[in-house]
């Protein structure tokens, strides 16, 4: 029987630094599967420069999965290696695929410094030099004394990097490109060239770097047996390097599912990346996230009929991963663009119940963010379950009004109670006549979210009239479907 793919990002930025998250993931596996989650994206599992306080993006040692006494301890923020591997196995045993977060752009927390000849560039335009050749003291030597050569004897030095942002001797920040090392030619064009992001930037033209990242990736697959990857900051890494690295990873697992984070509101940049990489991975639909934010903060003046215009979901739905928020957009983070609470159920109904795109649910929306007093999104578990059981069949869009829009799913025969009508508004409440298909003719439908009382009966031609309250969303299901939800969610 067909089943919709639904992912959860199983972390947020401010999780407790108690080393229990991998155990938490294992403990929640059965519940996640029950509500309809069948794919989980786990945070970076390797040792970061901040040790126990590291969220995982300040990569120090990718071979240390919470096993060696480095950076102040053995465990990572999320736990020890054995807990990590156990969590992956438990999730998979529940029928949940596991994606592991991969950061291939930079290294941080080096063990020693080196003297490096550099040329300083303008931060706003990395193609423009603002100094002649000079020497800096750079943190570029990674010898991993706590691991002592276990799994790999590769050690990183200045030859493996193309730049950094800190001169330790002068105690000066800057964009320092190592002499003889050009920035990658094919990266995002923001700031002239956005190869450099943070830390010691990998030189992905260096044959030793290419080979070591492949060796590590294959070791990681052999160790964890994940189902795929979430690749961080792909706009800062040579497009060809990512394409070729993934090809090497698929030598071990052909059906490896991969999502890239290309943070841009310009859909043309995302489609260009997909073309440049031979569509080797999917991308998060960042433009759609910003459309949600605009709709939620426009005081009812946003044209909902054009909500999906200039989004990846509209341009290339097969490669689009839709989301409402994530660890970067939550309060307190550099890319903070958190969707207001009133619009969250609307946004989730749009990504979970439509036919296009693969939705990703944010941990902070499902469980809340105690650090900032953010509660869970109401009825999110119900929306996920509705997707799993009922959001099937041909889709019909009724995006024909600037503030009151809807869509329907006809359902499929192999799921007898499937089919749904979704109606939403950023203004006053109202009703809309929509076609749900003759398969549902004669059926009585009700609002599964309980916002609207009463029923509607689908006529012989497959049409019904569906209502919604102001600034809200309603999801209409058949009586039998609703009975199941009442008993199971």
What would you note in describing this structure?
The chain is of the alpha/beta class. 24% of the residues lie in helices and 25% in strands. It contains eleven helices and 25 strands. The strands form five sheets. It has an eight-stranded parallel beta barrel. Helix 8 packs parallel to helix 10. The two termini are 21 Å apart.
Topology of this structure?
Elements: E1 7-9, H1 21-35, E2 39-42, E3 47-48, E4 59-61, H2 81-93, E5 97-102, E6 106-107, E7 112-122, E8 125-129, E9 134-141, E10 161-167, E11 172-178, E12 200-202, H3 207-224, E13 228-231, H4 239-249, E14 257-260, H5 267-276, E15 282-284, H6 286-296, H7 312-315, E16 320-323, H8 344-353, E17 358-362, H9 363-367, H10 380-390, E18 395-398, E19 404-409, E20 420-425, E21 430-435, E22 444-447, E23 456-457, E24 463-468, E25 473-478, H11 479-488
Parallel strand pairs: 1-2, 1-17, 2-5, 5-13, 13-14, 14-15, 15-16, 16-17
Antiparallel strand pairs: 3-4, 6-12, 7-8, 7-9, 7-11, 10-11, 10-12, 18-19, 19-20, 20-25, 21-24, 22-23, 22-25
